[in-house]
Design goal:
about 50% strand, 2 helices
Length: about 90
């Protein structure tokens, strides 16, 4: 399935700490999460092990919300959360 990343969504995603490669990875291999407004949501936890805004975080969780139009995934928004998640609870915030 083709993935179309909205330029504005990508810009905001980069400000939040993720990139196009991770967004595509979440869409392809992430765990389904609840979404509103007839959208699809997926999330995935990545190892981070860096500081962000002066605080160290072990992991980051990337959530991608999108629609599917004519077999094309069209991203709507991307959120990034920082912290630590257990692998078995990666899809629960």
């Amino acid at each position: 399935m083709d993935i179309q990343i909205d330029p504005h969504a990508l810009e905001r995603a980069e400000e939040r700490g993720t990139n196009e490669e991770e967004i595509r990875d979440v869409v392809n291999t992430g765990a389904p999460i609840q979404a509103k407004y007839d959208r699809v949501g997926k999330a995935k936890v990545f190892d981070f092990n860096k500081k962000r805004h002066g605080k160290f975080y072990k992991q980051k969780r990337v959530e991608v919300f999108y629609t599917i139009e004519d077999s094309v995934v069209v991203t709507v928004t991307v959120y990034v959360f920082y912290g630590t998640w257990e692998k078995s609870n990666a899809d629960i915030v």
